[in-house]
């Protein structure tokens, strides 16, 4: 299976996914695509000999469909079977999502369905939650809403800030995403639940 990974920033999840696809793993990364030419993950991918593509969203303004057609154009030669969104900060239209229905995953830093959208760690702290975590799900047109493929939980500790909590969650993201992708590629969509 050929996997495309979409990033917008440092790409720490992309790196773990990429480094997990070795040996008898039935998938390989065919391209890392970013909307941000300055994404640090692009260099990490290039260091590992993985093709990269940059599709900036700014030239398209509110024309998200135009942006997405440029993405499809950039993807064409790489022929991905699966798309993994990993810190990709653009919202995709229902048209694009439905074209990749059942073949596109995302990682979100909360225990969905709680805290869809942004600033998840601050919101969990503000709510006084004692447990938080991350979710890998299939992407559907509704934001952060598709079938859950895996979750990892972490405790919220006294004195936590959004930063300390995010760091604890990120460690689990790096374990969960590769695990879920390996199962997904093997056709196993039964959700997995981890306790970090
Ligand atoms: C992570 O918190 C992830 O949950 C979210 O984007 C953040 C950065 O991810 N999707 P990465 O380091 O760029 O993979």
UniProtKB/TrEMBL annotation:
<comment type="pathway">
    <text>Purine metabolism; IMP biosynthesis via de novo pathway; N(2)-formyl-N(1)-(5-phospho-D-ribosyl)glycinamide from N(1)-(5-phospho-D-ribosyl)glycinamide (10-formyl THF route): step 1/1.</text>
</comment>
<feature type="active site" description="Proton donor">
    <location>
        <position position="108"/>
    </location>
</feature>
<feature type="site" description="Raises pKa of active site His">
    <location>
        <position position="144"/>
    </location>
</feature>
<keyword id="KW-0808">Transferase</keyword>
<comment type="function">
    <text>Catalyzes the transfer of a formyl group from 10-formyltetrahydrofolate to 5-phospho-ribosyl-glycinamide (GAR), producing 5-phospho-ribosyl-N-formylglycinamide (FGAR) and tetrahydrofolate.</text>
</comment>
<dbReference type="GO" id="GO:0005829">
    <property type="term" value="C:cytosol"/>
</dbReference>
<feature type="binding site">
    <location>
        <position position="106"/>
    </location>
    <ligand>
        <name>(6R)-10-formyltetrahydrofolate</name>
    </ligand>
</feature>
<keyword id="KW-0658">Purine biosynthesis</keyword>
<feature type="binding site">
    <location>
        <begin position="89"/>
        <end position="92"/>
    </location>
    <ligand>
        <name>(6R)-10-formyltetrahydrofolate</name>
    </ligand>
</feature>
<feature type="domain" description="Formyl transferase N-terminal">
    <location>
        <begin position="1"/>
        <end position="181"/>
    </location>
</feature>
<protein>
    <recommendedName>
        <fullName>Phosphoribosylglycinamide formyltransferase</fullName>
        <ecNumber>2.1.2.2</ecNumber>
    </recommendedName>
</protein>
<feature type="binding site">
    <location>
        <begin position="11"/>
        <end position="13"/>
    </location>
    <ligand>
        <name>N(1)-(5-phospho-beta-D-ribosyl)glycinamide</name>
    </ligand>
</feature>
<dbReference type="InterPro" id="IPR002376">
    <property type="entry name" value="Formyl_transf_N"/>
</dbReference>
<dbReference type="Pfam" id="PF00551">
    <property type="entry name" value="Formyl_trans_N"/>
</dbReference>
<dbReference type="InterPro" id="IPR036477">
    <property type="entry name" value="Formyl_transf_N_sf"/>
</dbReference>
<dbReference type="GO" id="GO:0004644">
    <property type="term" value="F:phosphoribosylglycinamide formyltransferase activity"/>
</dbReference>
<comment type="similarity">
    <text>Belongs to the GART family.</text>
</comment>
<dbReference type="InterPro" id="IPR004607">
    <property type="entry name" value="GART"/>
</dbReference>
<feature type="binding site">
    <location>
        <position position="56"/>
    </location>
    <ligand>
        <name>(6R)-10-formyltetrahydrofolate</name>
    </ligand>
</feature>
<dbReference type="GO" id="GO:0006189">
    <property type="term" value="P:'de novo' IMP biosynthetic process"/>
</dbReference>
């Amino acid at each position: 299976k050929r996997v495309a990974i979409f990033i917008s920033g440092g790409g720490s999840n992309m790196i773990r996914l990429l480094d997990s696809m070795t040996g008898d793993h039935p998938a390989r990364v065919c391209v890392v695509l970013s909307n941000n030419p300055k994404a640090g993950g692009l260099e990490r991918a290039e260091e590992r000999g993985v093709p990269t593509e940059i599709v900036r969203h700014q030239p398209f303004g509110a024309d998200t469909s135009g942006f997405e057609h440029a993405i499809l154009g950039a993807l064409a030669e790489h022929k991905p079977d699966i798309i993994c969104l990993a810190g990709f900060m653009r919202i995709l239209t229902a048209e694009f999502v439905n074209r990749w229905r059942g073949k596109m995953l995302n990682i979100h830093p909360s225990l969905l369905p709680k805290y869809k959208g942004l600033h998840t760690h601050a919101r969990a702290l503000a709510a006084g939650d004692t447990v938080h975590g991350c979710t890998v799900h299939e992407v559907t047109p509704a934001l952060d809403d598709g079938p859950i493929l895996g979750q990892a939980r972490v405790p919220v500790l006294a004195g936590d800030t959004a930063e300390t909590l995010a760091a604890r969650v990120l460690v689990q993201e790096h374990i969960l995403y590769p695990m879920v992708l390996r199962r997904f590629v093997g056709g196993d969509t039964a959700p997995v639940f981890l306790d970090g």
